[in-house]
Write a sequence for this structure.
C-alpha cells in the first residue's frame, strides 16, 4: 500500500539518487516553487545525486538558462534531459521522415532550431506533423480538423513529450500527449519522445558508480509518465498529488486505486515536495 509522506527527509536514508520532473514538481506556469527548490537543495546537501527529466519541448540549454535566471542553484543537478533535446538529437541524426513539417502550435518550435528542417503551412506539403509540450497546454478541439487532414494524407505525428495533462496555477489543461492519443485512436502513425521511456532514467544514471535502482527515487506528478517510468525502471516512486491529478488530501486507498487504473504501484505520495 502507498504511504503518505509529508516530509521527504523521513526517508532520506533510503535513497541515493533522485530523478524529478520539472513542471508539476518545481514549477507551475514557469513559476518556480521555492519550497520544492529548497527541498532539492537539502537533498544535495545530504549528498544525493539529483537528475532532472522533463517532457517539455525545450532544449536542455534553454531549461538550464531558465532555472539559473530564476535563482535555482544549478550545481545541485548532476544531469538533465528534456523531450525536446531527445527529439532534436533524432532530427539531427535521422532524415528518414523527410525535411518538411507542419507544426501544431502557435509559437516558434524549439526542437527544430539549428537544423535544416523546414516548417510549411500546408499539411499536404509536409512530410510529418510536429507537436511539442509547452507550459500552457492545448485545446484539443482546435486541432480536430488538422488531425483529420493529416490522417487523410497519411502524415505521421512526432509528439515531443507524452504528457496528456498539464498542471498550471489555473488548473489542469490538455497537453500534446492527449493530441497524440487522439491521433493514434484515429489510426494515425505516432512517434513520441519523453517519459515514460525508461531509457531516460537509464541514460541519466548510467555513469553513477555503484548505482542501485532500488535506491533511486523518481518524483513526479503524473501516473502515466513519471510513475510508469519509475515502475519500469524498478525505482522507488514519490507521487505528487497536487499536480495533474489534483487530489486533495487523498487516502492511501485512493492512491492505490488510481495507480491500479494505470497498472502501477506507488511507494509514497505527498501533495507537494517538502523536506
Amino acid at each position: 500500500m502507498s504511504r503518505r509522506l509529508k516530509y521527504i527527509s523521513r526517508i532520506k536514508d533510503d535513497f541515493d539518487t533522485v530523478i524529478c520532473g520539472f513542471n508539476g514538481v518545481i514549477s507551475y506556469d514557469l513559476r518556480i516553487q521555492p519550497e520544492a527548490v529548497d527541498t532539492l537543495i537539502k537533498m544535495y546537501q545530504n549528498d544525493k545525486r539529483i537528475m532532472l527529466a522533463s517532457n517539455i519541448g525545450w532544449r536542455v540549454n534553454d531549461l538550464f538558462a531558465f532555472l539559473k535566471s530564476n535563482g535555482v542553484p544549478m550545481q545541485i543537478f548532476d544531469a538533465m534531459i528534456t523531450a525536446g533535446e531527445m527529439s532534436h538529437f533524432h532530427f539531427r541524426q535521422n532524415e528518414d521522415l523527410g525535411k518538411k513539417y507542419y507544426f501544431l502550435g502557435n509559437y516558434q518550435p524549439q526542437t527544430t532550431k539549428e537544423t535544416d528542417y523546414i516548417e510549411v503551412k500546408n499539411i499536404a506539403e509536409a512530410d510529418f506533423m510536429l507537436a511539442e509540450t509547452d507550459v500552457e497546454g492545448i485545446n484539443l478541439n482546435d486541432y480536430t480538423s488538422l488531425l483529420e487532414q493529416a490522417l487523410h494524407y497519411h502524415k505521421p505525428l512526432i509528439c515531443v513529450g507524452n504528457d496528456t495533462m498539464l498542471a498550471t496555477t489555473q488548473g489542469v489543461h490538455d497537453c500534446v500527449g492527449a493530441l497524440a492519443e487522439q491521433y493514434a485512436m484515429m489510426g494515425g502513425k505516432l512517434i513520441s519522445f519523453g517519459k515514460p521511456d525508461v531509457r531516460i532514467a537509464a541514460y541519466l544514471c548510467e555513469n553513477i558508480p555503484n548505482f542501485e535502482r532500488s535506491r533511486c527515487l523518481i518524483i513526479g506528478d503524473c501516473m502515466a509518465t513519471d510513475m510508469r517510468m519509475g515502475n519500469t525502471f524498478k525505482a522507488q516512486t514519490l507521487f505528487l498529488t497536487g499536480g495533474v491529478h489534483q487530489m486533495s488530501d487523498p487516502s492511501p486507498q485512493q492512491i492505490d486505486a488510481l495507480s491500479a487504473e494505470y497498472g502501477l504501484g506507488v511507494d509514497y505520495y505527498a501533495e507537494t515536495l517538502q523536506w
Q: What stands out?
A: Residues 108 and 122 are 16 Å apart (CA to CA). The chain has a mean pLDDT of 95. The chain has two domains: 3-84+196-270, 96-193.
